[in-house]
Amino acid sequence: MKKHIQLPIIYTALACCLGSQLAQSQESEEVEEVIVWGRSLQLLGISSSASQGIVGYSDFSTRPLSRVAELVEVVPGMIATQHSGPGKANQYFLRGINLDHGSDFSTYFDGMPVNFRTHAHAQGYMDLNFIIPEIIERVDFQKGPYFADTGDFSLAGSNSMKTYDTLDKNFTEITFGSEDEIRLVTANSFQLANGSVLAAFEHHQSNGHFDLDQDVRKYNGLLKYTGDIANIPSRITFSAYDSQWISTNQVPQRAVDSGLISRFGFIDPDLGGESHRYSLTGNFEINDWDLNLYASSYYMNLINNPTYFLNNPADGDEFEQEDERLLFGGSLSKRSESEIFGLPATQTVGIDIRYDDVNELNLFNTIGGRRASSIREDEAEEFSAGLFAESQISLTDKLRATLGVRVDLYDFEVDALREGNSGSDQDSLWQPNIGLAYRVNENVELYLNYGHGFHSNDVRAAVNTIDLVTAEPTEAQDVLVQGKGSEIGFRYDTLNGFDIAIVAFELRIDSELVFVGDAGTTEPSDPTSRGGVEINSFWEISENWVFDFSATKTNGYFRGLPSNADSITDAHEKVLAAGLTHVGNNGLTASLRVRHFSDAALTKDEAAQKDGSTLVNAGMSYEFNNWEIGVDVLNLLDVENDDIAYFFESQLTSETTGVEDIHFHPSNPRHIRLLLKYRF
Questions:
Q1: Top-level CATH class of 5-679?
Q2: Which of 9, 132, 137, 354 has its CB 3.0 to 4.6 Å from that of 164, i.e. a possible disulfide?
């Protein structure tokens, strides 16, 4: 599963910025196979903060992944878990923020934004199930609101995933796991006319570890062309995703303690969903301009029931969320070298636009998985345009300054079935950013950063006049919510296989207003403040051994609340991750990874808490001729951890009133997978 590159192929990337492409020199006749680690690429003198990084395929190919969304855990301090079924977007955590299904962390796939705004289930919904990890060449990441080229949902950070243009070797692999798990992946690249084509397909099915079979059926396809079109260097990518699944929700602790259900049991057997996403992206180099265009068709249907019989003791609280939309957009940017007041400078200017046409944005009451009544049915149109400019100026041979600004305009319209909840409006926001980087010597660089960012809220919150639950008048909310961040950082690189970055950061968000799709209402939070320290290191111990380590300690609280009732719920203060990888000369590869996150408060007064979690995953593979066999063991120690926990009120059939309780979704028990792979 490791990526092999032949010497003297040299990475000349990062000559201008982190987002530039990795170039390759011509191969010589006599070559030697080596592993090139993305995390060992030189960032000193290039990056504008200590929180930026690059991860190549070699860095994560040996990682045993229990779910595709764990691919974002290559971003130091990032956690991906799940509170429901396998087909929906995952639950994410970063820097003491419960990102829910995305909210303040954005992902781009070959230039296309993955997060959905004004979504039926969650704002910033970031579903990564359409991605095939084996064809991701690299992941570029950055944390904090210090970058003018990233806009919505990027307060905590962002990452950009780029697919391969061509493969070193074509392959077909099949994985067998416990609980009837089967995964088939095949990928092939070939020359076509003046370019190349990459084709990939994935099928995944599993019944899962829960008492209720999850019956996961997922299909992914990708077709990519790289070459000249009308003498324009181009990359055209088409991806297709289709999935359906049955799920268990988070379950009440009291039901497990009483013996009513097991840890992997369920209350409602009718939960689950289906989803598809068909996308087309194009990236073009036109003279000195980079043009990105994308279009996507998306659908999701999800049946959920977190409260069971609390609101409807007779028929239950089951509900269905439906989202169907078309998404169009693109970006145009230019990077150029110039002088400002006689000082060398690299300037970037650009614009990005996006249009969401949501023709189904619905919430229904259901009984036994069938629609019983309508709670709300909406249509929405949302248009945004962002203008940005950024200059990196060399003040001296050692000191660089980055100055940037971004302006975003939002225009939206909501057509609601419920009278009084329709309307249209506009909103705008500008965000400055500034950074300093000082090169102490060839091995050490210091960074100072400050910037503004934002996330958008569900546009229904801006026009709603009637609360659909209470039928009382409600106050419209701002669509764009601002945050301010700062950090001071340090990066040390031996330039010979060892680097470490240490960052102290702060993030203040005006309001973490979230549209609650489960209830069809909005719940604004108080302003929040978070501060912490982060360490990220990578060490090529030898030719065959690699060690990586990351740790984050965060302290967060609600501003304006009493000190005994200001804890931010579901926010993990401590996150640790480490991995040891062995790549032998005899074809043997082994990986051992540990991930830990600490206890978390489930109420503002910390009266209820979620226990921390520690997971150990291990993998081993052996290559011979063109074959590879491997085994992964997930949750090696078979510990009883919880992926997520909440504290809220629910009611079971045996109860006459609601009960406040911890509701949790367990991590998978020990899980073994066997891999057979053929390269050709």
A1: mainly beta
A2: 137
The first and second tokens of residue 146, run together, are: 């210090």
Answer whether residue 482 shows pLDDT above 90. Answer: yes
How far apart CA 326 and CA 240 sit, in angstroms, is 14
Residue 458 · residue 515 · CB < 8 Å: yes
Give yes or no for a contact between 612 and 667, defined as CB atoms under 8 angstroms apart.
Answer: no
What is the per-residue pLDDT for 469?
66
Task: Look at residue 491 in the predicted model and tell me its pLDDT.
Answer: 96
Please tell me the distance from the alpha carbon of residue 471 to that of residue 393, in angstroms, as a whole number: 56
Least confident of 10-24, 129-143, 423-437: 10-24
- Please say whether the beta carbons of 57 and 33 come within 8 A: no
CA distances to 301, 322, 359, 428, 630 from 356, rounded to whole Å, are 18, 15, 9, 17, 43
Angle, alpha carbons 627-632-633 (nearest 5°): 160
**Looking only at Cα atoms, what is the longest distance across the chain?**
79
In this prediction the pTM is 0.91
With beta carbons less than 8 A apart as the criterion, state whether 206 and 177 touch: yes
**Residue 26 pLDDT > 50, yes or no?**
no
Would you say 224 and 189 are in contact if contact means Cβ atoms under 8 Å apart? no
Q: Which two tokens stand for residue 99?
A: 């990102």
Mean pLDDT across 101-111: 94
Interacting residues of 546 by C-beta distance below 8 A, sequence separation 6+: 37, 538, 539, 540, 580, 581, 582, 583
Q: Read off the pLDDT of residues 580-624 as tens digits, 9 standing for 90 and up.
A: 999 988 999 999 999 999 999 999 999 999 999 999 999 999 999
Element (H, E) at 462: helix 460-463
Spatial distance between the Cα atoms of 123 and 488, rounded to a whole number of angstroms: 30
Q: How far apart are CA 652 and CA 655, in angstroms?
A: 5
* Residue where the block lists tokens 């041979």: 397
Q: Compute the mean pLDDT over every residue in the chain, rounded to the nearest whole number.
A: 90
Question: What are the domain boundaries of the chain?
Answer: 5-679
User: Using CB atoms within 10 A of its CB, is residue 328 exposed (0-12), middle (13-18) or buried (19+)?
Assistant: middle
Among candidates 483, 486, 531, which has minimal Cα distance to 511?
483
- List the one residue out of 297, 301, 346 whose CA is nearest residue 320: 301
pLDDT at 18: 33
Using CA atoms, how far apart are residues 491 and 449, in angstroms rounded to an integer? Answer: 14
